[in-house]
Write a structure and sequence with these properties.
By secondary structure, this protein is α/β, with parallel strands linked by helices. The chain has one domain (about 5-250): Glycoside hydrolase/deacetylase (TIM Barrel, Alpha-Beta Barrel). It has eight helices and twelve strands. It has helices spanning about 25, 45-55, 80-100, 115-120, 125-135, 150-155, 190-205, 230-245; strands at about 5-10, 15, 20, 30-35, 60-65, 105-110, 145, 160-165, 205-210, 215, 220-225, 250. Strands 1, 4, 5, 6, 7, 8, 11 and 12 form an eight-stranded parallel beta sheet that branches. A two-stranded antiparallel ribbon has the order 2-3. Strands 9-10 form a two-stranded antiparallel ribbon. A hairpin with a 5-residue loop joins β9 (about 205-210) and β10 (about 215). The longest helix has 21 residues, at about 80-100. The model has no long low-confidence stretch (mean pLDDT about 95).
Length: about 250
């Protein structure tokens, strides 16, 4: 049984006057913040603000790197040459690091977003490019990803800490991957179901797949999406239930 788990959420997902996530209130609940670095969402002012707020609350800052796809929110499949992708990953980490350091802290880990996250589960070339980008930025940064992914395998081989992640509000296939968002039921919308899944993942590392099969998903960090309706209240319920169940909620990094 796990005695502790990290709670992470995608934050800073805005651009200019448009804001998707309730960053300030979510930062009062989560222990790690995946901050958009300008490629799928986020801009300089937003990155700076979220870093300052995270630092004030002692929340770890992670660079959420993405394909360059503002119009598609980073969720469209793209083919980017490995050398270019590695440079763009390093660029995003470096941009966030400036604001993290200015706030008195630093970037503590890296997590891919959207289409890139799903691509590096199986695509060795793209996964290797992400690892190369992380190494270029900081050869000691942990990488957050799906258990069993090529990304975490290559990160570990390169000497980067590989941190396994689970999703309380996403449906799983029988193979332990995420059900594509375009399919019915890909996102778990029942709050109580999300809460129960969170406790189950933290306690036993097991979740029911979309078909009802028992899937092992042992993870050190649990992701709650900040762009879903009622995200703040749901995050609070998840954290409260975890703590009531005797599970410490604390950052992995």
């Amino acid at each position: 049984m796990m005695t502790s788990i990290d709670l992470n959420a995608d934050l800073g997902e805005g651009f200019g006057r448009w804001q998707l996530t309730d960053d300030e209130r979510l930062l009062s609940v989560v222990t790690s913040a995946n901050v958009a670095c300008g490629f799928h969402a986020g801009d300089a002012a937003t990155m700076r603000r979220v870093c300052e707020q995270a630092a004030e609350r002692g929340v770890r800052i992670g660079a959420q790197v993405s394909y360059r796809d503002l119009a598609g929110f980073g969720r469209r499949a793209m083919d980017v040459p490995p050398a270019e992708l590695a440079a763009e990953v390093a660029y995003q980490i470096g941009a966030l690091e400036v604001f993290a350091r200015a706030a008195g802290t630093r970037v503590s880990y890296v997590k891919p977003h959207g289409a890139l996250y799903n691509r590096v589960v199986h695509d060795e070339e793209q996964a290797g490019a992400v690892v190369d980008g992380v190494l270029l930025a900081d050869a000691a940064l942990p990488v957050l990803g799906l258990p069993g992914s090529r990304l975490l395998e290559l990160a570990a081989k390169a000497g980067l800490p590989a941190v396994q992640e689970a999703f309380a509000d996403r449906a799983y296939t029988d193979q332990g991957t995420l059900v594509p968002r375009g399919q019915d039921g890909a996102v778990v919308t029942d709050p109580e179901a999300v809460v129960k899944r969170s406790v189950g993942l933290a306690r036993s590392g097991v979740v029911a797949s979309h078909s009802g099969a028992r899937v092992e998903v042992r993870a050190r960090s649990l992701c709650l999406h900040g762009d879903t309706p009622g995200a703040v209240e749901l995050a609070r319920r998840v954290r409260a239930r975890l703590e009531e169940s005797g599970i410490r909620v604390e950052a992995f990094a």
